[in-house]
Write a structure and sequence with these properties.
By secondary structure, the chain is of the alpha+beta class. The protein contains one helix and three strands, in the order βαββ. The longest helix is centred in the middle third of the chain and has 13 residues. The chain has a three-stranded antiparallel beta sheet with strand order 1-3-2, covered by helices on one side.
Length: 71
């Protein structure tokens, strides 16, 4: 169970996948999920995992991809 001050947020994402190795976190390569988790972690001052409703492959763009995170 999450602490009472946390909220699950819905993220609707639009991104250009050029320069990314897909959505899912992979060691040693830049991914959309890893960049998003890093940005949210800087904002919340704690690890902030993101759950995506789908995935993209290397170089694939997205419009309206849905994800969620506890912040």
């Amino acid at each position: 169970m999450s602490p009472p001050n946390e909220r699950r947020i819905k993220l609707t994402l639009h991104y250009d996948g050029s320069g990314f190795h897909g959505w899912q976190v992979q060691p040693g390569v830049r991914t959309v999920q890893a960049e998003l988790e890093a940005a949210l972690s800087r904002l919340t001052d704690r690890p902030t995992p993101v759950v995506g409703a789908g995935r993209t492959d290397r170089g694939v763009h997205a419009t309206g991809q849905v994800a969620s995170a506890l912040v």
